Amino acid sequence: MTKRIVLAMSGGSGAVYGIRLLERLLAADREVHLLISSAAEQVLRDELDLVVDQFEEHAFLNEVRDVLDGYGFRPQDATLAGKLIYHRIDDWSAGIASGSYRTAGMAICPCSMSTVAAIAHGLATNLIHRAADVHLKERRTLVLVPRETPLSAIQLENLHRCARAGAVVLPASPGWYHRPRTLADLVDFIVGRVLDHLGVQNALVSRWGEPSD
Length: 213
Ligand SMILES: Cc1cc2nc3c(=O)[nH]c(=O)nc-3n(C[C@H](O)[C@H](O)[C@H](O)COP(=O)(O)O)c2cc1C
Description:
The chain is α/β, with parallel strands linked by helices.
């Protein structure tokens, strides 16, 4: 079983969900293929003061840690065992553009309505859409974490099309039954559920009906 997971961030609000997910995937020793749309770069800057610009792994991961520290996330592992591979969204020669390149799944977190629309209609106009297309056609896990409210009929239809094609639609809509106290608790509720669907063991949320670890 490959450790490769594709993580794409598109320009929906809630960039912190994607950043926490990235850190947890690397902490879980996954090989993360990271994609960031240009709108997502803008959201990262607007919401978290995180500047991607010319991607440089060391600087980026330091910024990731600063963001997570600021939110007070626990746990945060000192060493991130996994491997980070960044792809520009116009790099059509990347392995993840092909179905023959094996992965354990893909998450788009957060996922904008425009990216949902592109996937729903098979418009592979950037590498995020293409990799999502590939995951659907290869019958692999594709988790979409949309963030929009309220939703128009067009957006609901597009989400429905994606779900019918096999995507897991997991809205950034945390539950409250675990009695969250902090923003980190709310974020981890969603990140924990995404990790569950990607088959990554985690104890980020207390599970209903199960004693906590
Ligand atoms: C700060 C900020 C927040 C945004 N929030 C959302 C959002 O929650 N949902 C959404 O669908 N689009 C949102 N947008 C708009 C998208 O980024 C825009 O539609 C863009 O075209 C998406 O492109 P992408 O899908 O290639 O990332 C936001 C944009 C900015 C700058």
